[in-house]
Write a structure and sequence with these properties.
Elements: H1 2-7, E1 8-13, E2 16-22, E3 30-32, E4 38-43, E5 46-51, E6 57-62, E7 67-70, E8 74-79, E9 82-87, E10 93-95, E11 105-109, E12 112-120, E13 123-132, E14 135-145, E15 151-158, E16 161-166, E17 169-174, E18 179-184, E19 188-195, E20 201-208, E21 216-221, E22 226-229, E23 240-243, E24 248-253, E25 256-259
Length: about 260
């Protein structure tokens, strides 16, 4: 619609919305469901759930600027600082006893379609969703504090692990058990992390306090514990984004997304 066209820029590949950003900041303001049918879009005062094809507003979530899909079961978001599960089947909302005021990510646990890992405010929790014909009931089974401080919402999910960063630390989190392995990157400050096609290897973007050339891109192999700088001249652009629907890394070239 005209309002959305005025506020947002969308990147398309084969008709699929991969990433929607504000024209001024290029920040992510929308999430697409795994089946491509639903779109959650941030707006002043909250967020709306829309049919991705028709634009019809299905649910309005007030006072929530980050909303996460819990598969086809419902939505998870922070309502006035309280983590909340919205059930698609019954339309009910359940406040989760998760000790975090902001939610950075909701990650499906591989091989367990009813289980998800919640990340927020330096904490992690294992969320299980039990569904019947009348609706779904969420339950927190594990919760713990993650090492480090200042966690960013960027998360790289690869197989049974998730990688995320805070300040000068990268954490490898085993999704099924919430066991965390922190890796110090001193004197580098991390700014981004993205998955690759190589198991156990992620892209990280960081900058040393002694560097005057801006941030650099690296490949980190968790098994060997090695860090290798990426030659930016071999890429169409060093501005990379993970296109979740295609499960691949894309380079931002102007207003286009091209394979990295």
């Amino acid at each position: 619609d005209e309002t959305a066209e005025a506020l947002f820029r969308a990147y398309f590949i084969d008709g699929k919305v991969l990433r929607v950003g504000e024209r001024t900041s290029d920040s992510i303001v929308a999430n697409l469901s795994s089946n491509g049918r639903l779109l959650v879009r941030a707006q002043p005062g909250g967020a709306v759930l829309q049919d991705a094809e028709t634009g019809e507003v299905l649910v309005t979530v007030k006072d929530a600027n980050r909303v996460h899909f819990a598969g086809g079961h419902g939505l998870v978001y922070a309502d006035d600082g309280k983590p909340t599960f919205h059930d698609f089947a019954s339309g009910s909302d359940t406040v989760l006893p998760f000790q975090a005021h902001a939610l950075a990510a909701l990650i499906p646990v591989p091989g367990k379609p009813a289980d998800y890992v919640l990340l927020g405010d330096g904490r992690a929790a294992l969320l299980s969703i039990a569904c019947q014909a009348s609706g779904c009931t969420p339950q927190l089974r594990l919760e713990g504090r993650m090492p480090g401080t200042g966690w960013a919402p960027r998360v790289a999910v690869m197989g049974e692990h998730a990688y995320f960063f805070g300040g000068r630390n990268l954490v490898q989190l085993q999704l099924a058990t919430l066991q965390a392995k922190p890796v110090a990157f001193d004197p580098m400050s991390l700014m981004d992390v993205m998955p690759t096609r190589v198991p156990g290897t992620v892209f990280v973007r960081g900058m040393s306090g002694l560097s005057s050339g801006g941030p650099s891109l690296y490949l980190y192999a968790s098994g060997a514990g090695t860090l290798a700088k990426v030659d930016g001249g071999q890429l169409p652009s060093t501005r990379l984004v993970y296109a979740a629907p295609l499960r691949t890394i894309m380079a931002i070239d102007g207003a286009r997304l091209v394979p990295a």
